[in-house]
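Usage

Read records sequentially. Each one opens with the input sequence:
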Amino acid sequence: MKEIDVLIIGAGPAGLATAIRLKQRLNAEKKDASVVVIDKEPKLGFHNLSGGVFEAGCLDELVPGWREGEESFFKQTVEIQNDELYFLLPKAAFKIPHLVVPKLMNHIGDYAVSVSRMAIWLGTVAQNLGVEIYLGFSAKELLIEDGRVKGVKLMDLGLDRDGKKKSNFLQGETVHAKVTVLCDGSHGVLSEQLSKLLPPAKNPQVYSIGVKQLIKLPPESAFGNNRAIHTLGFPNRFDVFGGGFMYSMPDNMIAIGLILGLDWPYGDLNEQQELEVFKTHPLIARFLKDGKIVAAGANTIPEGGYYSIPKLFTNGALLVGDSAGFVNMEKIKGIHYAIRGGMSAADAILDALTANDFTEKILAKYEINLKESGILKELYHARNFRQGFKYGLPIGMPLSQIQSFIPFPISIEEDYKGTKKGRRLNRKKQDSMDRAQFVALSGSSHDENQPSHVAIPDPELCQQCGKFYAYSCTHFCPGEVYRQKDGKIVLSPSNCLHCQTCIIKCPFHNITWTPPEGGEGPRFKYL
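and closes with the structure output:
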């Protein structure tokens, strides 16, 4: 394949915003440059999942007029007019007065949205501008020569489970590019490869896992319209960071989910079942009466904040969106940072194309653009928000209110170090949805006759994990990819939701994850 000008890995909000902004400016200046987006998903939006409340001003700038017309994407959003925060005990709920809630956690005027549908719409906008989008292609490694990123190597297609060539074998192409933009999501394979080659951040990146369902409610439901609810407390114990959410969605649906910090200490915590426990709370259960679950999914969230952001540019490459760690847990938001970050990257890339210079000296304009956009200022304000919760909720809550005055980074460890020997949650299993049903509602699908994309390099360590950590992977994987049988871990890679929890949370760092063939994985049609 000939060298292309700009290669973007990932067709989510960050990657598509980068492509749209760049092509808009190229077209306006009557310049010709190829802008190509590739993604491993089979269709636009299938690998995009988020809590889904965002600040829409970024779209007013990126796609002026997006709110207009009967078929506009605006019709698929819900403006939040009623925003509530509750603290939950097992049988009681205490509404926290608005005067007490920090201003940055106010969501009135924001929009609830399906991120998968947003990606479909952004993809259409990009293609109409002349962006080339290729789906079903998994990029497995960066091409690096003489200290410069020069593109990517795609996965081979048509191998059986033993790695032997099938009749439809197709060797993965090498794609060369002048600039490679990594927008491959939370703990993305290629962005992790690049981060290891760059100067480290002051803190390691830490993550939460978000488990989410979309529920169809009767027309006259108790939840109502244009409403957002966030919760603290139940079912989380004080040493588990996170909370719950419920958002109004179009067509009498609500999004409900639970976010849990992956530094939890319990070897047997099962986040999919924790969501089912959350739904039993009296406050939550009355809103869900006669509702039907229509979709489910899970994904990780990079939440270390400002001090966990790596160097964002190098010769021939940029990091954008979740790949860069652009999530503000003080606001519980990341979508508008992904979009604005993509716009900032596009402006820097245009300068590089104009100068025909793709060294980090030119691409450093990206960071200047991020500062001017306000992204880095907001992330800096929340720089120690998440770190304080390593001490538990009673200390983390007050510390989060003064964290912006602390002049140094509060240190934090990688999530896998948070699991404590012998600590058990001992949660009673719910009789409602199990993980097999959860996977079915995610639409996840893989060809079983291909090499496993998950592996355990040292199976002997699983014995120690069973002794000290209750075979934690058999609990923390929301897709139940890992099962224990006679002291050994049996893999079911076809269940995988591509959330990356396993390589983040395994107490021994004894799991590897590589992209499967393109077109595999979840199909998040509405999430």
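Summary fields computed downstream for this record:
- The radius of gyration is 22 Å.
- The chain has four domains: 4-63+117-201+309-381, 79-110+207-302, 388-413, 418-513.
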